[in-house]
Amino acid sequence: MNFDDILYSTEHGIATITINRPEVRNAVRPRTYEELTAAMHMAADDSSVGVVVITGAGDKAFCSGGDIRDQQERVPDAGRKHMRRLFALSSVMRMMDKPIVAKVRGFCVGGGNEINLFCDMTIASEDAKFGQTGPRVGSVPIWGACQLLARYVGERKAREMLYTCRLYTAQEAVAMGLINQVVEAGELDATVDQLCQDILDKSPQSVRIAKLALNTGSDQEFYASYFPTSELLASIYGNAENMEGITAFLEKREPDFRQYRGRRPAR
Predict the structure, then answer these.
(1) What CATH number did the domain enclosing 174 receive?
(2) Considering the entire predicted model, what is its pTM?
(3) How confident is the model at residue 267 (pLDDT cuts 50, 70, 90)?
(4) Entry's InterPro entries (predicted)?
(5) Burial 187-206 (b: 16+ CB within 10 A, else e)
């Protein structure tokens, strides 16, 4: 597969996957998800690779989530296809028998934070910011955040993050257990590389079994929740409330979701 939206390289047992759309803060569109899935399969199938690093190009963002421009014309049928696309990426990330490390600079929000949740470990620079954006743009983070976030930060904090769409600093993220470590921006590459070397020094078969064992419980929760909620989310694509979030974002204004509270059905 020829890559347009990502970069892929391998060196000394490390596969590095870079979301390469810095002009839109590494927002992901359908092609990006498909390329990420293909790259993850390449890394999984390469016996010389022992650890995968995923990051974003530039210093503004790891990933700012889904490209809102792609969502303007999304309707339920297209939404269902999109849900299958998301599931394909998360499945290979979870089933891959090699650790995946997120290297985060800048914004890691929305779908970007859900990609972060599917990684095994996360190292962030001190300027990183984390959060979910679903209800702010008329959507729902059912691709990972609703299932996995509470396991990392606790249910109360997860609800706060999902319902309010607040952003959290890297220091707040490490304190709540969302990420592993915060370092100065200039130390990020070296710190991630040292973590990878630590992993590569260990027994690959032992690491493989440990990852699969650790995933067992949360996989059951994820799969049980994802399929029904993905259909629910797909079914609201394109309706007025969903489009208010998308249109407001594109028009650079605050959405007016209060108009949808207490509204009586039209006769």
Answers:
(1) 3.90.226.10
(2) 0.94
(3) very low
(4) ClpP/crotonase-like_dom_sf, Enoyl-CoA_hyd/isom_CS, Enoyl-CoA_hydra/iso, Enoyl-CoA_hydra_C
(5) ebbebbbebbeebbeeeeee
